Structure formats: C-alpha cells, structure tokens
Amino acid sequence: MSAESDVMVVAGILALLYRITPTAVSEGPAGTATRNYVAEDREGGRWFVKAYPRGTDMEAERQALALGEAARAAGVPVPTVRRTVSGELIASAGGLSVSVTEYVADAETAEGGLSGGRWAAVGEAVGRLHRALARHPAGPPRPVAAREVCDVARAGRRLEELLARWAAVPPAPGGFAAWCARTAKQRLAALPEVAARMEKLPGSLTAQIVHGDLASPNLLLSGETVAAVIDFRPPGHRSAAWELGRIVLDPRTVLARPDDWIPGLARAVDAYRTANPELPSEDLLAVPRVAAGYLACSVYPLSEPLNDPAAVTPALEAYGRARHEAADVLWEHLDEAEEVLRDVLR
User: Fold this and answer.
1) CA 104 to CA 42: how far, in whole Å?
2) Is 1's pLDDT higher than 60?
3) What is the pTM of this model?
4) pLDDT, the chain, mean
5) What is the predicted pLDDT for the residue at 4?
6) Which helix (H) or strand (E) holds 312?
7) 200 — pLDDT class (breaks 50, 70, 90)
8) Cα–Cα distances in Å, from 237 out to 137, 167, 201, 210?
9) Coil, strand or helix: which one is 78?
10) Cβ atoms within 10 A of the Cβ of 121, count?
C-alpha cells in the first residue's frame, strides 16, 4: 500500500471507528517499527495515530496501551488513549491496525539530555510511575538476584555468538561495522572486571511492573517539566533501578554534561524517592552501577550491521559510540557518584 493510500485508510478509520472527522492527516515522526500519523479534526483537536506493521502481536500492544492508561489514572502524564466507538484500544480496517492517542504539542524528546530542573522533574515522574505500577494487577514488586539484573554470563554468550558471526562475515576496515566487531571483542574481554564490579551490588534488587522501554525518545519534555511518557511495553517485571538509570543516565546526557551528571543524578534520585518512598534505598544507590553494567553487557547496536543494515544511520552510529564511551565515564566516576547518592539517601 502506498503512503497516500495509507493516509486515506487512516482518515476512513478515524471517521468510521472513532467518530473523528479529520480535516487533515499527515505522516508524523517515524517509530521504531510503526508508521505514525498526525490528524486534525473539525474542532481543532490533534490526534497521534500509530499504524502497526503486519505480524505485530496486537494483544501485546493492547496490554501496553492499557498499562499506559493505568499510569495515567494514577496521575502520570500519559497521553489519553482514544478508544473506538465500541470501546476497543486498537482498530483494524483496510489492511491497517491503528491506535489513537491525544497529540502532545510543543514538546521535545529527552534525547537532547537532561539539565537544570529537568533532572528533578524526570526523577519525580519516574518515581510516580513506579509507585503507581507497583500496584498493578500483574503482580507486586519482588526481590530478584542482582546477577539477573545485569546478567554478565548471558552477555558473554551473546558477545561470543556475535564475534563468531563477525568472523564468518569480516567487516570492511575503517567503517562502523569494523568498530562494532572491535568493540564487541573489547567488551567480551572486559566482562570479568564487570562481573567483579557487579558483585558489589546488594544480593537482590527490586523488580516490579515498569514502563519497559523508558528511553529518551519515549519521554517528552516541555521546558523543565515532563509533558508525556509514551510507548509503554506490555506489563513485565524488571528492575526499577535499571529503568531509572536508563533514562537519567542516558549516554548523551553523561557525555554532554561531564561536570553536571553526578549532581543531576542526585537531584533526580532525591525527587524519585520523594515520589516513591517505597523503593528501598539500596536500589536507588545501585542506579549508577546498574546503568554502567547494563551498557557494558549490551550488544546493541554492535549487532545492527549484521541484523539490520538498513537501520545503520549516522545517528545510530553516533549513539552506539556514545553508549560505549559513556560506560567508561560511568565506571571512572562510579565511586564519586555512589558517595553523593549515599549523602542524599541518608
């Protein structure tokens, strides 16, 4: 189906199944796996329409949308989901399946990094989110072994498999693929030291229902406030410390603000604890160590030139290099970061 045909199908779905009469439908910012549209109705309202590709697990997408609704009901800034006239979260017609949410205007993603009052605003929003989702029907928080949060043994297996694939298809020298193969080798060699550093985590950390993909593109900011949390994953238990660290210690933030990320982290953690005092202090103290371990154990995007060459863009290359460099910065300043957090958490 052509892009023009898709726009017509989207307009028809909105009119027939949502009782939204669109005056304009245009392509919006592309998603990782979805084609997105922005529609305007006769009253001037704007709607964000996500069209799912064939083969998508639609039940999982429904669960993800419902999770966002639960967070919104608890006061987290999540865009309202527009249900169909029959109450469905997702509509299908004309070969397309779509979901519709309110459009968040005048906001930017957190990909530019955190600064100023944004540190505390993001910490407070994530704390409120985790406090709300800790009561989700899918299950209460539970302790999990710290080694499961940063699974060094699993990372070793994945890196060995990746290096075997690179050995079978040697990359051309000098490009991003060659950097990926070289970096994978370096990460594998560094895993014993990573494992030793992970031994300093408490024996267990708290796993609970979380957003699941709280990366910078899925957090919208307006000035120094959180405008929206978007693109939830289906309910699943993961480390709350991991999710907090993933967003507040985004590699671009760490590298862009070498003198500010540690005090910024402290402000974010302090705001998080105020919003969610139920998460143990041991989990919050673990945030920078878990964040560094997560980056050190990751094979993303080192596998992308093999798995999805079309996805390798200059932006992805820059992000991949930033992830690798940021891990080194986090390890180098880990003692200082933990000492500052101890003062905050006393």
Assistant:
1) 18
2) no
3) 0.94
4) 95
5) 66
6) none
7) very high
8) 12, 36, 19, 7
9) coil
10) 21
- CA 44-45-50 angle, to 5 degrees, is 135
| Residue 72 token pair | 């919104």
- If residue 237 lies in a helix (H) or strand (E), which one and from where to where? strand 237-239
Q: CA-CA distance, 255 to 295, in Å (whole number)?
A: 14
Instruction: Please state the rounded mean pLDDT for residues 288-295.
Output: 97
Burial class (CB in 10 A: 0-12, 13-18, 19+), 85: exposed
First to last CA, the chain: 59
- Alpha carbon dihedral 218, 221, 227, 229, in 10-degree steps, equals 20
Calpha distance 229→226 (Å, rounded):
8
Q: Is the peptide bond before 301 cis (omega within 30 degrees of 0)?
A: yes
What average pLDDT does range 89-110 have in this prediction?
95
Both tokens of 41, joined, read 């109705």
The 219-222 sheet, strands edge to edge: 108-109, 219-222, 225-229
Residues 13 and 231: their CA atoms lie apart, in Å, by: 21
Which tens digit of pLDDT belongs to each residue from 136-187?
999 999 999 999 999 999 999 999 999 999 999 999 999 999 999 999 999 9
Count of all residues that appear for the chain in the document: 346
Of 229, 206, 221, residue with least CA distance to 75: 229
Mean pLDDT across 118-138:
97
CA distances from 205 to 3, 196, 336 (A): 46, 17, 21
Q: Smallest Cα–Cα separation from 44: which of 21, 11, 28, 26?
A: 21
Please report the pLDDT score of residue 164 as a whole number. 97
* φ/ψ (deg, to 5) at 304: -65, -40
Span 294-325, pLDDT tens digits: 999 999 999 999 999 999 999 999 999 999 99
Alpha carbon distances (Å) from 82 to 18, 91, 124, 192: 8, 11, 26, 49
Tokens found for residue 250:
């985004």
Q: Which residue has the tokens 């064939």?
A: 54
Q: Are 230 and 71 within 8 A, CB to CB?
A: no
User: How many C-beta atoms surround the C-beta of residue 220 within 10 A?
Assistant: 20
Distance of CA 57 to the CA centre of its chain: 19
